[in-house]
Amino acid sequence: MPQTWRVVSLLCAVTCVGYLVRADVAVAQERMVPALGLTMTAMGAITAWGFQLAYTVFQVPGGLVGERIGVRRALMLALIGCSVASLATGVLPESPAAAVPALWITRVLLGISQGAIFPVAAMAVMMHVPPDQRVRATSLYISTSVLGAALAPLIMAPTMEAFGWRAVFVVSGVIGAATAVVWWTLMPPPAHDLVMASTTSMADSRRELVRLFANPSLRRLSLAYLLHSAVWFVFMFWFFRYLVDGRGFTVLASGVWASLPSISGFVCAPLIGIAADRLGRRVGAGRARRLVAMSCLLAAAAFVGVGAVLPNAVLAILALSVASASINGAEGPFFVTATALGAASPGPAAGLLNLMGNLGGVLSIWLVPHMAAAWGWIATLVFWSAACVIAALLWLTVQVERDPAAVA
Q1: Which among 28, 88, 206, 308 is least buried, having the fewest CB atoms inside 10 angstroms?
Q2: Residue-wise pLDDT tens digits, 232-255
Q3: Which of 78-92, 258-272, 293-307 has the lowest mean pLDDT?
Q4: Cβ atoms of residues 329 and 269 within 8 Å
């Protein structure tokens, strides 16, 4: 296998496991919440202000760590941290008074550990993948992360039913540790990765961060990604619950049906990435990414709205699965555009993008249970459909024609 696609394959494994480890709580909470004396609203607050906030805050530092110590070391440490956090969650104390603060700590540790994964993966693509193949490469590892989200309910719901909710986190921890070994063993340490790590000073990093935050196109792109990701996290954290509460499915049935949006994203996003790269050869890479991203976001808005109001549960799930695939299809254009706009420091640029995206996740994870309780699930989904439309329109304000990769 050529080294370029060997690296992409390893990135796929890392992001898949990363999402599997973070998505296990969406299943485990069905048994864990009553066992610990919590409510779903309280669990949403722990997830939002524990894991999600820590994950958001550590996006840019994660990119900086990748530049300082290199891609290989950074992602190995991230996987080890994920494994430790999961295993610790599986052995929480029996007493709710002790378990709740311990749960918050493990969620924070998981967020910090995962903060480096996507910024450093974006760095790896910039280092190893030719410009005319970067959208498809990015779409591959991002869509494979969605496969991890799909595998979580398929693997973890039966595990929980057979062995209890603690076993969910033990299984996740073991998978994370095994992936860290595979990554470290098979990932080559490229010479230019080591050079970047050794020559980037902290003063240079600070100046580059100031330059990135001052870039108006990157700020607008990041705001669009905030709205895009807020919608994605509705699927990521609350779709399982929507099927149980909003559609009346059992836990085991929800474990199967809740995987469909993620599977659809896994199948469709790489195809959208290939189409974006091919279109880029005709109209320019930057313009192609904008056209593809806007089309995906508008399609997602339409199908979320349709899925919200369809009376047939199966048809609604299918419509929402198409919406999820469309949202995932926009991921590649977002990340490649961000790293191109911040080409001198791609890790922090991707970190800034993902910081804003996960801030959207913090907001939607926290808001959805309150919105569903006050408005019902239909109005809640229609609200997030409108967020997709606004995200699409924001792409019109991004100066992709000035993107260096647009003429590469």
Answers
A1: 206
A2: 888 766 666 666 666 666 555 555
A3: 258-272
A4: yes
How confident is the model over 22-53, as pLDDT tens digits?
888 888 888 888 888 877 777 877 887 888 78
d(CA 88, CA 74): 21
Q: What is the pLDDT of residues 310-337, one digit of tens each?
A: 777 778 778 888 888 898 899 999 999 9
The alpha carbon of 244 is separated from its chain's Cα centroid by a whole number of angstroms, namely: 23
Q: What is the pLDDT of residues 154-206, one digit of tens each?
A: 888 889 988 999 999 999 999 999 999 999 999 876 554 544 444 456 666 66
